[in-house]
């Protein structure tokens, strides 16, 4: 009687490949130490393939920088396990037919390879990267599919794409455990993946349409845009003067370095509307000064046509950037204001978010009911948008600076909560009634026949500009 346990062990030995980091100098890790994998050391693939030992560098089959990415190394290992040989991804073309044709061919003894979930995910992520999407967007896609979908399929025993039916997708969605807005964004990513698979011929025609209708639309309740009122923003800036990232170091320099840097970063986000990731990776070359107008501006982004979009900043903010001190450790960079260039943008963004958590606790901003206000760095971008609209800036101009693809996005996020815009609209309508003679103009408190003078607001005098 055959021993099934021994057969399973033999099968595991035949196909078992694993991507590993191989550390070289100047990396200080041991050669095969897998405790730290975020370095730029190359990826090697080791294991057994059809009884033969495999120890090969991914650089022979993947271009830079993919050969240093563990996820791409994992995709390559999966491909080798599927094909049974060491091939380049571009050399492998799977025979892909609609599910309706697979069964008919199988009856005649024709062996047709069915695309697995791992292969579909790898192809989808590669196609997304080839389109030139940002690293941040690609990271979110990898989180949804590489981590969540692959884990779910492994737990449920789902191997082929054709097994991802509506019931399986709904069950997977139920395991996310996130709020409605995040769930809605993830579901949009999943629908895009289904359309990709259908166009590749891995699903029957109209499968993506039926799955989209079956999943339904996730209801996301509109929430008021959180922003800092002038008094709250003042409290936040005041907190930067007592802020310290490293108390043991800052106590010797009067708590200036950490506070100066986070104060400058806060002012930049407040007056440009930049997201925290874009602000902490802001390049020094994006700060410019026009001697004719005396204005300093920051290039907030570049359009697809290559044309830069400038956002003027107050003189004191520009001076903060020009005189920004080095970090507490003395690290600086000739290219960036707030980043040394080491690590990844995601890592430095996470570090600054942690610093803002400490700053918000120091500011101790309260809600009207005396409860602690929920604060996060993105509120500085919202503050720029809301205060600009309150000050009379046109919606189209705010949308341009924020980099929204449509004015409708700006309107959806900010207009419902800018009540002063409605007040201004009411005043404009009443003034039109007065001119048309429908209502009488309000009498001045200074007596009949006398017009009330508008208040004079002195402009601040800026020294050095």
Can you walk me through this structure?
- This protein is mainly alpha-helical and 465 residues long.
- It folds into three domains: 85 residues, no CATH class; 128 residues, Tyrosine recombinase, N-terminal domain (DNA polymerase, domain 1); 145 residues, hpI Integrase, Chain A (Orthogonal Bundle), CATH 1.10.443.
- Helices cover 47% and strands 8% of the residues.
- The chain has 18 helices and six strands.
- A three-stranded antiparallel sheet has the order 1-2-3.
- A hairpin with a 2-residue loop joins strand 2 and strand 3.
- Helix 4 runs antiparallel to helix 5 and helix 9 crosses helix 14.
- The longest helix has 22 residues.
- The radius of gyration is 29 Å and the shape is globular.
- The N and C termini lie far apart (92 Å).
- 23% of the residues are buried.
- The N terminus and C terminus are likely disordered.
In short:
With 465 residues, the protein is mainly alpha-helical. Helices cover 47% and strands 8% of the residues. The protein has three domains: 1-85, no CATH class; 94-221, Tyrosine recombinase, N-terminal domain (DNA polymerase, domain 1), CATH 1.10.150.130; 230-374, hpI Integrase, Chain A.
């Amino acid at each position: 009687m055959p021993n099934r346990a021994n057969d399973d062990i033999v099968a595991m030995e035949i196909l078992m490949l694993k991507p590993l980091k191989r550390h070289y100098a100047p990396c200080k890790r041991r050669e095969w130490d897998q405790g730290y994998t975020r370095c730029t050391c190359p990826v090697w693939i080791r294991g057994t393939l059809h009884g033969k030992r495999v120890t090969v560098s991914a650089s022979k089959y993947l271009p830079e920088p993919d050969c240093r990415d563990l996820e791409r190394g994992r995709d390559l290992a999966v491909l080798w396990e599927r094909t049974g040989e060491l091939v380049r991804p571009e050399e492998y073309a799977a025979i892909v037919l609609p599910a309706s044709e697979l069964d008919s061919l199988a009856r005649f003894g024709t062996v047709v390879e069915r695309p697995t979930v791992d292969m579909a995910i790898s192809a989808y992520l590669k196609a997304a990267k080839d389109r030139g999407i940002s690293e941040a967007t690609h990271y979110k896609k990898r989180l949804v599919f590489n981590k969540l979908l692959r884990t779910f399929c492994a737990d449920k025993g789902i191997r082929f794409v054709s097994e991802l039916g509506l019931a399986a997708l709904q069950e997977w969605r139920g395991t996310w455990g996130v709020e409605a807005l995040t769930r809605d964004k993830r579901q949009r990513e999943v629908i895009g993946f289904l359309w990709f698979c259908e166009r590749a011929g891995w699903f029957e025609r109209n499968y993506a349409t039926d799955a989209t209708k079956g999943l339904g639309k996730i209801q996301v309740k509109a929430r008021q845009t959180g922003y800092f009122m002038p008094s709250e923003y003042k409290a936040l800036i005041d907190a930067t003067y007592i802020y310290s990232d490293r108390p043991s170091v800052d106590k010797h320099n009067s708590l200036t370095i950490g506070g100066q840097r986070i104060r400058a970063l806060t002012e930049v986000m407040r007056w440009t509307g930049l997201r925290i990731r874009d602000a902490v990776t802001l390049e020094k070359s994006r700060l410019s000064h026009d001697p004719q107008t005396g204005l300093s501006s920051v290039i907030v982004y570049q359009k697809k046509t290559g044309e830069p979009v400038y956002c003027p900043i107050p003189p004191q903010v520009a001076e903060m950037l020009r005189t920004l001190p080095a970090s507490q450790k003395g690290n600086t960079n000739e290219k960036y204001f707030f980043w040394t260039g080491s690590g990844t943008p995601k890592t430095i963004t996470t570090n600054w978010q942690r610093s803002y958590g400490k700053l918000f606790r120091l500011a101790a901003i309260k809600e009207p009911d005396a409860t602690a206000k929920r604060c996060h760095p993105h509120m500085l971008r919202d503050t720029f948008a809301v205060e600009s609209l309150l000050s009379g800036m046109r919606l189209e101009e705010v949308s341009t600076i924020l980099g929204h693809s449509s004015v409708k996005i700006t309107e959806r996020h900010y207009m419902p909560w800018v009540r002063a815009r409605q007040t201004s609209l009411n005043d404009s309508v009443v003034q039109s009634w007065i001119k048309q003679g429908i209502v009488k103009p309000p009498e001045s408190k200074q007596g009949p026949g006398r017009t009330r003078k508008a208040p004079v607001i002195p402009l601040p005098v800026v020294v050095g500009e």
